[in-house]
């Protein structure tokens, strides 16, 4: 469990040859050893070549083998103990309690995908038996299963150094699907990445899998990421990060001789709609919940509620007043990186300099470097509709209240929104009719719609959607959290008139995997 | 059932204002009335605006309403009677027997999607019930369903004037998913398109649906298609045609402020692998089946077997000789359009001029304009591996035999292939081990793999995959034929802690649609 600063290319730890990164403790602004030298183009190629060499064998491991591998990764991560939590705390400024919870979530996520792999529903087996007597032409025997797309490039996210990084949701779902993974570590937590990477590499070895199933690369600029996405052996990309970063990868992926899918989770301001009856009855409670969600983790969540929309009037004013009281008591919190902290200041500065946005409240001042001071602003719907800058994401604990003249204006603001990860409704029984008129719009705008809750806190389960229309993600057809994430890394193949001896087990006539197939148009019981 | 030359913008028949197209009878090279004036940019916008206006209502029609609509379209197409068959015959040169079969397939396809819509499995309902007592945090109630992507632009294909045109597979699957459709008619069969378009419009009216559910446009150049794919209200594209056409639409779709998915089925040469034991035992029979598949419909199928790969030797030579005898007896057949006929001649000319391709046999000479004379060429694997031109699709009844030195060279040729719709194996029991070594490669290369059959003839069923890795299609994750085609036009939405009164029926607690949900991790019986 020693940090070496080395790349992991399959089972080999190799020192990079390009410009190095080092982590910075954002709470103290001091650099952390060791240096992580970036991968050369050749080293990127080595990792992809190993992944390619591993692919055909890995994708045909049994469901049990693959599930056991995912569980072994979880065990190996847990075996890292406090070393992992301490390093992640130093690299990210995130409190240890949060990191312990995130480790639990990461390991539970791996075990959830093990359950999904074993259940085998993702194979989506469809069988149409031969109809040799059919007129005018016989029907052949046709069988369909899903197969893995190929090696996947995964980009670690800064804000979930465990749950959406080296062995996070993208890696877990790609590995579950049968895809080898090459991870580009996020530059903000290379030590955490190396520790988890070593854990995954140990699991690969322990499970006797081909070494190319997993590699881990570092890089100071965008070169490593671009080289990775450009490599012809990479067949899909998982990314969580900025809109500019995600769009750049999409362009690289589209410009390849063989374009590939990119699942980039990029930006969202997560509108919250407050309806009249709820505001009247319990506006202060809603305000308290809102500020708790807004300031949680210094607001560094993709689902942070950055926009509040309601009809103006005394009830909304009471909400703003109550929220302002809460914001003013919110302690400043260390952000993940100096870069994120300065981007937050710039975003807040843009709001402060916007004549259409009125400052309502600021949190307690900074006590150290790279801290986030919570901010609440208010604007009018007309200004919001006219000024795209007011819809820009400010990553951190800043939110904007949009006061509307009428229900119709609320609807206009909803329709005006870009694609979102989430949309939230606060309502009482008396608001149901009004809420219903917004639903069709919100279904078109967001991947998840919540009632009387808060969008932060993304459950890892079957029904979760952490995705949404562009620009929330680059591909609204997928989710990056929850078990449906596996579906992103699969494609269908049909086998016609195959002798049983050539069929993969999922499709054999005796159904040895005991799958509930779609058999001649009927789902098996 | 009179042909008017009008666009159908919702329920209105409107004359286009741009350059007109007219069909040409390829058997006589004579133009067919009426003229079809192209849609203006404004008319494209009108169709998209209507589609958008219809979307929210149409996607929430009941499963029964939508299924009935699809069945009504089938009835209305059947009610066109001989008018449709006669016009399609005149416009395409396809024999009436083939067109009668294709009409049957088109209507069966619509009825199959009606069954799929009613069964509701495509909703992929997932329910995770609330766990209020869970520690450290309660779990909310989470419910997921699939919703329609939005209005879809469909481009009719030339080679299936019914089954992959106005009311073909793309339209049927998009309408089944809940997406309004705006069709750009293929310029080769505008009259057939208008007749079918009128049938669909009558079904829309008869079912009381919003008129924007369906529109039909014509255009002489690429402008209408580009305007359609650029329109912000269009959310996905279905296309079957040339690689250049498909890639152009992909570029337009990617360049939009909001990029959208394009399902373009583009090009495939459908390799056929002949193994030794099968060649020895029944090479002449295989040759007969091969030439029948090659020359069927003048070779104008996406799955036409354009490539044959085998180890050289006396058995392969006997196959080539037997196939040559068949090819020499193959009558010339009228192709779909003068453009397709001249592209075929150019493709064959390129083979004839390639020093590495030896002519083995030519079919009977042309008896009329725009006819396809079947062609068989032979090359060596080394030349094939070195010359990308030998992998170019020649749309029509031309095929190239690649003779290999060794099993290893067969594998190299397979690995060298671009993405394909199909790959076919002809084998006997003694070939199983050899075939098994190729399977992993072919799974990576093709959407459908066949044993001892021929790739032409694409069954519309649950297990079909008519798709495959780039450049066979622009998106290997989908199929354009078969019931899984509906999945291309859907995205997931999650509903968190919704009161039952706000939930769509598919997600309500009482499960009124009686769906087999994924409920707390278990599939309902």
From TrEMBL, chains A, B:
The keyword Lipid metabolism does not apply. Keywords: Oxidoreductase. One of its GO terms (molecular function) is 2,5-dioxovalerate dehydrogenase (NADP+) activity. It is an enzyme of class 1 (oxidoreductase). It catalyses: 2,5-dioxopentanoate + NAD(+) + H2O = 2-oxoglutarate + NADH + 2 H(+); 2,5-dioxopentanoate + NADP(+) + H2O = 2-oxoglutarate + NADPH + 2 H(+). It holds the Pfam family Aldedh. The keyword Iron-sulfur does not apply. This is 2,5-dioxovalerate dehydrogenase. The lineage of its organism: Bacteria, Pseudomonadati, Pseudomonadota, Gammaproteobacteria, Pseudomonadales.
